[in-house]
Write a structure and sequence with these properties.
2 copies of one chain form a homodimer. By secondary structure, chain A is α+β, with helices and mostly antiparallel strands. In chain A, about 30% of the residues lie in helices and about 35% in strands. In chain A, strands 1-2-3-4-5-7-6 form a 7-stranded mixed β-sheet. The interface of A and B includes residues 73, 113, 115, 144 and 145 of A. Chains A, B: Keywords: Transferase. Chains A, B: GO terms for molecular function: acyltransferase activity, transferring groups other than amino-acyl groups. Chains A, B: InterPro entries: Acyl_CoA_acyltransferase, GNAT_dom, Mito_N-acetyltransferase.
């Protein structure tokens, strides 16, 4: 049994290693691989409009997502989210549950669309999951991502109305 | 005769009214229409990797562009630019000259692609100009921009390799 709830300050020591492992791997996020904990905290916790945390039956954080406006001014009705799941908690549908939850939250906050700016084309599991939740590939950016093993790979812009 | 040269601190008092008119109109940039001069300065001058200014034969600034990485980390080889031209200097090929100049500069700085994240679909002149300079519409974001007269309109992601 997992629960999705708002972020609390005490979650960070558990969340940071989850986020850190994903950023350090450099395979999915357009974030500096050697980002400092402080910069990651600003990006994931301080700047977004909302942060949610997935906790397991024991109350331990095993995933998180942030939600923010993807652009400013006349583009600020389109939301953007980032999701992380702890390595030991994958394959349990947690990313899908967060995606669904974030779509509902975005609607509640008044957003009318959601956009993912850079979905690495080699990340086929994520692409399939986002498509299952109503996203389409709006376009493909040739060689827009430097994958640590695969080199320059394409990335997709994925989008859906809410 | 126009010249494109690096930004100098003394250019700002001339540039700001040009930039301000375009941001206040709210028709092309995903920037808050009522952005402060200080925030605009940060966005156009402080944060980008490079800023260039177009000056006319009398040495007066009539246009400007900024160049920056569009994403961080494994996406920071893709450049992004924004361009402004003074109202009284339009129709003289200045935007095209800046586009061409920025593509060369991006290559010199080591970028291997350039991306425009939100080209308002109603801005057909700009779209045609970017296409003339080698950009393609990588994808279209339905209703991603709130145009002050036209309401919600589509926006394009435009992209080219360098």
């Amino acid at each position: 049994m997992t629960t999705i709830r708002p972020f609390e300050t005490g979650d960070w020591p558990t969340l940071w290693p989850i986020i850190e492992a994903i950023f350090r791997a450099g395979e999915t996020y357009a974030v500096p691989r050697h980002i400092s904990e402080q910069d990651a905290h600003r990006m994931w916790i301080e700047l977004p409009r909302a942060i949610r945390v997935v906790v397991d039956a024991q109350g331990e954080a095993i995933g998180s997502y942030y939600l923010k406006a993807n652009q400013s001014g006349p583009g600020d009705h389109v939301a953007n989210c980032g999701y992380v799941v702890a390595a030991h908690a994958r394959g349990q549908g947690i990313a899908g549950a967060m995606c669904k939850h974030s779509l509902t939250l975005a609607r509640e906050l008044g957003f009318t669309a959601m956009q993912y700016n850079l979905v690495v084309a080699s990340n086929t599991v994520a692409i399939g999951l986002w498509q299952k939740h109503g996203f389409t590939i709006a376009g493909t950016l040739p060689l827009a991502f430097r994958h640590p093993e695969q080199g320059l790979v394409d990335a997709h812009v994925m989008y859906r109305l809410l």
